[in-house]
Design goal:
By secondary structure, the protein is mainly beta. The chain is built from one helix and seven strands, in the order βββββββα. The protein is globular and about 35 Å long.
Amino acid sequence: MTPADSQVRVRVYQLDEAATWSDKGVGFCTLEDCQGVLHLNVASEAEVNRLILDCVVQKGEVYQQQEATLIVWTEPTGEDFALSFEEQEGCQSI
């Protein structure tokens, strides 16, 4: 089993100024503790060592699960993101 096999595969979307979801790419989602701060990272599937997304996990009810494989939220900066999971189990694990 390679490291990619044990990670959760997702597609990242960001809501643009025209209120359209823009596809940012496919990668592998992980939760990482960086000196006591939890980060949600998505490493690109196509480009080694490229992060598609690196967000500090926020407290409270900012994350919403929609359907079985979609999580959406708004960053403190006002940016809206969505993660579309390849499998329902991956969405549940995050």
